[in-house]
Amino acid sequence: MASEKARLAKDNGNAAFKAGDYATAIGHYTSAILADNNDPTFFLNRAAAYLKLGKNEDADRDCTKVLALSAGNVKALFRRGQARSALGKLDDARADLNHALALEPANTSVKNEIIEIERLVQQQNLRQLNKATLDSRPQATPINVPPKRRRVPIEIIEPDASSPLDPRITAAPEIKLEALSSRKLKEETKPAEMEIPPSKPQTFMDAKRAREASKTVPVSGGIFRHTGNHTIVTRTTNESTTSPRASTPAPVSTQSTPSPPIKPPMTLFQFTKSWDSLRFDDDRWSLIRTIPPSSIPALFQVSLEPELLKSILHTLRATLEQSPDSDTRNVVREYLLAFTKVQRFGTVMLFMDKHERQLLELLREKVNSSSP
User: Fold this and answer.
1) Among 110, 112, 125, 301, whose CB has the most other CB atoms within 10 angstroms?
2) Distance (Å) of CA 256 to CA 5, 252, 259, 286, 346
3) 316-334 burial: b if 16+ Cβ within 10 Å, else e
4) Within a 10 A sphere around the Cβ of 93, how many other Cβ atoms?
5) How many CB atoms lie within 10 A of CB 126?
6) What are the two backbone dihedrals, phi and then psi, of residue 201, each rounded to the nearest 5 degrees?
């Protein structure tokens, strides 16, 4: 028999399922399973919610768990057949549905699903047949056509023996070399002499001294050295006794650099990237203000994460503490209401700790109170 906590979580999950909030229903069914994992009804209901969200692998796993706890469960066979059909496992889906039909021959839903499976199998077989037909066709071999050759007429012109040749052409020119530079040629570089490797240390102490001598120790600002040669720095009379960094205060900027305008994000990925790049609550509040409250549920859909919701709540609290006027409270109230309308908001709250839930209640009290 299920515990009282498990039954309460199941009732909350059924209410969320009827309202169409399948993600929240999955959270309640999971709480019921954690309280009592021997009741197959909790797994069966969660599988139905998984099918609504298209999570077919999770639905297949939960239905298999139901059949392990309750063999011959017709609903589990039917829902596992639907999940496997969506995953493309048509043979396994047909086996589950035929088993369910054998247990309940008058079940109309099972019969309709079997008809749909047979139609998908026929389409799959037809596609495979068409592919095999295309692969079996002989491919045309390309004909190699030799390129056309172009004939270019060449005319040979022979010199006339009767015409005298130009003596400037026939006479070989006289070449004279002159010194253009007085620089000496580079001397041949002598080959570098081979370095004789140092002799190996004979004792352990010799090896230690050689290792210490080969180390390069960076010069630091202290007065003590590892070699024992300490250096004491003496100050001259011309030097000041106070450090310039200590005597001169750091300059304080009197003008704040204006932040660049924040573009409204079009997708949740753009919002998360812009949110993580901002470090101040004022900039994050400006990013939230670029999104109308009515667009918050459509932007987040079912992808609101607990860590992101925590940081948004902290930003809203900082905004109210900085500007506790009525206009700010009204705007924050609209955004709080918009975030509660995001899908999976109830499931996300299950993963929030006690302090974060108290922060949400505190924000609700502040925006609903008349006094700042």
Assistant:
1) 110
2) 55, 10, 9, 17, 41
3) bbebbeeeeeeebbebbbe
4) 25
5) 10
6) -65, 145
Residue 290 has pLDDT above 80, yes or no: yes
Q: Could you give phi then psi for residue 23, rounded to 5 degrees?
A: -65, -45
- One-letter identity of residue 37: N
Instruction: For residues 265 and 288, give the distance between their C-alpha atoms in angstroms, rounded to a whole number.
Output: 9
Dihedral of CA 84/87/91/92: which sign? negative
Q: How far apart are CA 25 and CA 39, in angstroms?
A: 17
Report the C-alpha gap between 10 and 36 in whole angstroms: 11
Both tokens of residue 220?
A: 């630091």
pLDDT at 45 over 90: yes
- Tokens encoding 162: 């009767």
Spatial neighbors of 297 by CB under 8 A, at least 6 apart, are 338, 341, 342, 343
DSSP state of 88: T
Q: How many CB atoms are closer than 10 A to CB 350?
A: 14
Give the CA diameter of the chain: 130
Q: Which residue has the higher pLDDT, 129 or 218?
A: 129
The Cβ of residue 201 has, within 10 Å, a number of other Cβ atoms equal to 13
Q: How far is CA 33 from CA 26, 39, 41, 94, in A?
A: 10, 8, 9, 29
Alpha-carbon distance of 291 to 266, in angstroms, equals: 9
Question: Can you read off the two tokens belonging to residue 290?
Answer: 């670029």
Q: How far is Cα 42 from Cα 28, in angstroms, rounded to an integer? A: 9
Helix (H) or strand (E) holding 311: helix 306-322
CA distance 279 to 184: 68
DSSP string, 32-89: HHHH-TT-HHHHHHHHHHHHHTT-HHHHHHHHHHHHHHSTT-HHHHHHHHHHHHHTT-
Residue 66: what residue type? V
Residues with Cβ within 8 Å of residue 260, at least 6 apart in sequence: none
Rg (alpha carbons) of the chain, rounded to whole number = 43
Residue 303 has pLDDT above 90, yes or no: no
Evaluate whether 347 touches 23 at the Cβ level (below 8 Å): yes
CA 140 vs. chain centroid, Å, equals: 47
